[in-house]
Specification:
Number of strands: 13
Largest sheet: 8 strands, mixed
Strand content: over 45%
Oligomer: single chain
Order of helices and strands: HEEEEEEEEEEEEE
Distance between the termini: 62 Å
Length: 160
């Protein structure tokens, strides 16, 4: 009887050290970021930005003044089912101009002083193929988008 008790101790120690299995919601579509609100997933507004060349900058423009995806969280969390795309995601704040949302990037990399830069984004794996993306800073109320680096595909949301 004593042997049985001691034999179960190593198993108990090993099971306490094992990582918990993810049991939260799972995104229904791959390669698509979803806002995480408690146990619910909110679909981000997917679209394609159009590029407009200007004198000293290039503007990436999304139609409309406000996103249909909204969150009250100043540090939003996203879930994404993707092996390749999640690590390439960048977060940008958009300006509302002339009935559109836009991100302006300089044509000359040396003139980045007042231009848009990607905001800090933390990316961690929570399960095989499932990633958690979090804004690493508090976001002001406004329009934002996630975009894969080098792509015109955008996933927009609004912080209110």
């Amino acid at each position: 009887m004593t042997r049985r008790s001691f034999a179960s101790v190593p198993f108990l120690v090993l099971s306490m050290g094992a990582q918990k299995k993810y049991s939260g919601p799972r995104p229904p579509k791959p390669d698509f970021p979803y806002l995480l609100h408690g146990a619910n997933l909110v679909t981000t507004e997917a679209g394609e930005a159009r590029e407009e060349k200007r004198k000293d900058e290039t503007a990436n423009i999304i139609a409309g003044t406000a996103s249909t995806a909204r969150t009250p969280l100043a540090e939003p969390i996203f879930l994404m089912d993707s092996e390749k795309l999640a690590s390439k995601m960048e977060l940008y704040r958009m300006e509302v101009k002339n009935g559109n949302r836009e991100v302006s990037l300089p044509n000359n990399p040396r003139k980045r002083k007042d231009s848009a830069r990607p905001l800090r984004l933390s990316i961690s794996r929570v399960a095989p193929g499932l990633f958690r993306l979090e804004a690493d800073q508090s976001l002001e109320n406004g329009e934002y988008c996630l975009t894969p680096s080098g792509s015109m595909e955008v996933f927009c949301f609004q912080v209110y």
